[in-house]
Amino acid sequence: MNVPQRYDELKTRLAEIHDLSKVTSLLSWDQAVTMPPGGAPARAEQMATVGRLAHELFTSPEIGRMLDDLAAYEQSLPYESDGASLIRATRYDYDRATKVPTELRGEMTRVASLARNAWAAARANSDFAAFKPFLQQTIDLKKRYVDCYAPTGDPYDVLLDEFERGMKSAEVRRIFSELKQAIVPLIAAVAERGEAVDDGCLHGDFPIDRQRDVCLAILRRFGYTDGEWRFDPTAHPFASNTSLGDIRLTTRYYADNLAPSLFGSMHECGHGLYEHGISPSLERTPLCRGTSLGVHESQSRMWENLVGRGRAAWRFFLPELKKAFPQLGQVDLETFYRAINKVQPGLIRVEADELTYGLHVVLRFELEQEMLSGTLALDDLPEAWNARMKSYLGVDVPDAARGVLQDVHWSLGYVGYFPTYVIGSIVSAQIWEKAVAAMPDLERQFEQGEFLPLREWLRENLHRHGRKFTPKETLQKVTGSDAVQVGPYVKYLTAKFTEIYGLS
Ligand code: ZN
């Protein structure tokens, strides 16, 4: 059998597996957006069936044989070619997928489903003790999972690698400790001047149909088109897609608060633009998605914060917003800009502002490592959580529901996931510096409502590669360095909030 034919066979098999994964995305989107609740039990079975079929197809020995047969062919291709990248990424995925015994995977799925329900009940009752046995089982399974891989010196590396390939715990510790050193004092200084910023203009009566119109008008400026995108309301906003021609965004509305829908839809649009910008040559392959959670989050945070919470964009959008909401007629640009950037140290990660968000994640990262290594007993977890919230953010945690039980992640077995949120914010500032250097009049374009030049630059330098390269290789291509660097992010935060709160 000649090699290109073998390659076509692999591509065909991977395309089928990719189709199944997109079917799962569609089932999941439908469940979150349109399905009546009565469909939930059957939908869980449907998604499990499709997921199992995809996993069986992918881990079959035949895929391993194809990869072996294609080793020489891969070597003959340029590293950057679609072909070599596809074989390389598939080999990485295959090695990972086949290292973990089916029995352990099944057990992880079973415990996650039980723990998810236990967590929901425990959170409702603010009862950590009720969740503790499930968390213990989850941590024990994580240790067994780690043991499936070659030792790296730090068990947490294996968990991190699942979400942010190539990132090491030691690197995250260094990054996060630099971040903490810089922003803990900044937050304390801002908190002392808490009354300096009034966000009253964002609260009031904002009919939801008009909020939707405003959000859509903004999204269209960012690159949304009716022929290839959708925009729907949901309870927990997310972005998904079934192909490059079908990008789906969701958002959440509050009739008395304008901010969540505005910035939530910009955030999801950043995810959507990344996926939409992937090269069509990668469609129906495992390379047709963002390279990692962290790099994905760099795109959502960039559109939400660096663009969406900037002055320049609102010089253009605020007059539009006032047409939809005449009560904002007297609000000037400065008042509005300050309102959307108000800092308020609080208890809940998903409600945190741009400045304090990072510390919610640093705290979780530290606790996860301590739980995994055994230096922190689960009995002491709530207290450790509360003590760190006090020391990092100056807030007192009144109960477990608003403390250690607030996030769903651990119940689902997602340990090592949280750091990607902040890595994304940090990387967004690194990429932003490069974009501004390449396009010095970027802000002036925003003032004119022109956002497509930024999108095109991102597409050319980042989006089109999809998952052809590792996160670090991708970062190297966009920024010229493969290291996550805190400097640009700290500089951005310090300049922005020092000015808004008059700290200098
Ligand atoms: Zn996101």
Q: What's the helix and strand layout?
A:
Blueprint lengths: L2 H31 L6 H20 L1 H9 L1 H6 L5 H18 L2 H24 L2 H20 L7 H9 L5 H24 L15 H15 L6 E5 L5 E5 L2 E6 L7 H18 L16 H15 L3 H14 L8 H7 L17 H17 L7 H13 L25 H20 L3 H6 L4 H10 L9 H9 L7 H14 L4
Parallel strand pairs: 1-3
Antiparallel strand pairs: 2-3
The structure holds zinc ion (ZN).
Question: What does this entry look like structurally?
Answer:
With 504 residues, the protein is mainly alpha-helical. The protein folds into two domains: 3-151; 169-501, Neurolysin, domain 3 (Orthogonal Bundle). It is 63% helix and 3% strand. It is built from 21 helices and three strands. The chain has helices at residues 3-33, 40-59, 61-69, 71-76, 82-99, 102-125, 128-147, 155-163, 169-192, 208-222, 259-276, 293-307, 311-324, 333-339, 357-373, 381-393, 419-438, 442-447, 452-461, 471-479, 487-500, and strands spanning 229-233, 239-243, 246-251. It has a three-stranded mixed sheet. A hairpin with a 2-residue loop joins strand 2 and strand 3 (246-251). The longest helix has 31 residues, at 3-33. The chain is globular. The N and C termini lie far apart (71 Å). The mean pLDDT is 96. Zinc ion (ZN) binds at residues 267, 271, 297, 300.
